Amino acid sequence: MRVIGLMSGTSYDAVEAAAADLELRGEVLEMRPLGHLSAPYPDELRDLIASSLPPAATTAGGVTRLDTGIGQAFAGVAVRAVRELCGGGADLVVSHGQTLYHWVEDGAVRGTLQLGQPAWIAEATGLPVVSDLRSRDVAAGGQGAPLVAMTDVLAMAALPGVPAALNLGGIANVTVVAPGAAPLAFDTGPANALMDAAVRHFTGGAAEYDEDGRRAGAGRVDPALLRVLLDDPYYGRPAPKSTGKERFHLPYLLRALGAAPVAEPNDVLATLAGLTAVTVADACRAHGVTRLVVSGGGARNPVLMGMIAEELPDVTLGSSDALGLPSDAKEALAFAVLGFLTVNGLPGALPSGTGARRASLLGTVTPGRGPLRLPEPADGPPRVLRVTGGASS
Fold first, then answer.
1. Looking at domain 2-149+331-387, what is its CATH homologous superfamily?
2. Residue 218, exposed/middle/buried by CB under 10 A (0-12, 13-18, 19+)?
């Protein structure tokens, strides 16, 4: 089955697409990546997303405009992916959409909202679309995150020691696969979310992020600010747990700076990179991680990666590329896997990772132009992911 995965993360800067041929052979899920592409959101749509995210208020009209605009943006990228990555033909599109709100109270997720109306994707491509992948896990008592854990576990099944996958998006999350134990997955805290917010604040919007970590690299970690940031009770909560920009946003950072003022913007950025490194390292040490497989935008920040390596001198760090999963495309490929599992009648969430009562089939299916024909349900779930051949773009 030829599947296209679409997503936009908490940095809401672009729509990412990745395509792969997927086939289940017994307990082995075979994946042949076909390439990936990225398309920035139109400026007007990105500004609307930014102005609607917590702690800002929005309206029903604003949500409707976002749902349509994001759906149309995803549809345009899906059409490109069919043409440029799949040679004009695909079987399924899987859309994560854009998270607008992740509703957490006292550590429990009450609801989650990903926008991007899938009807636009189905209409533009003619293909069936699996979307809204998080809500079913939430309804089963889970966190609805991190859903990339299924792909992480399958990809790391054969690795020795205690491997963990680390994704450095707006929020950092880890998936730990320890021998003889159920897989564990959770958000460790902010990665790029606070750093990006700080850059936009200090540059008056002239820059969106700290390219190559240059600003953080020119600064020094401020111990007082770091102590204030680490005092957040989120870090002390046991897994499963999840978080988002509902918690870690610019007003949150400004409150911390009010308690521990820092004069130099670069020192603030160095401290925020240090916060990510410390919280990631604490999570890895707590679970005896021996190898860290890194992906996401933060993996391209050498200052952040250097800080993580310094915090974890005995842990081997490497890119998910070594497992055949391109770092920039891993999340989109992970959602392609989840949609593939759904249409084959297999659950995509790991209860030990999300805290759900049961493993659920994820998502909602929107038919394409023709009759909806799903495969016969698979005999059983995969136990390992085997990546073969493939292409990059």
1. ATPase, nucleotide binding domain (3.30.420.40)
2. middle
pLDDT tens, residue by residue, 1-15: 999 999 998 778 899
Which residues have CB under 8 Å from 390's CB, separation 6+? 20, 31, 32, 33, 34, 35, 324
Single pTM value for the model: 0.94
Calculate ∠ Cα 150-248-269, nearest 5°.
105
* Average pLDDT score over residue span 37-44: 96
Strands (E), 153-277: 163-168, 171-176, 184-190
Question: What is the model's pLDDT at position 22?
Answer: 98
In the chain, the amino acid numbered 43 is: D
Hey, do 2-149+331-387 and 156-323 end up sharing a CATH topology, with the first three levels equal?
Answer: yes
Q: Where are the beta strands (DSSP E) in 277-363?
A: 291-295, 316-319
CATH C-level class of 156-323: alpha beta
Tokens 């902010």 — which residue? 190
Q: Where are the domains of the chain?
A: 2-149+331-387, 156-323
213 contact partners, CB below 8 Å, separation of at least 6: 273, 301, 302, 303, 304
Residue-wise pLDDT for 192-234, tens only, equals 999 999 999 999 999 999 999 999 999 999 999 999 999 999 9
CA distance 218 to 231: 25
Q: In this prediction, what percent of the chain has a pLDDT beyond 90?
A: 95
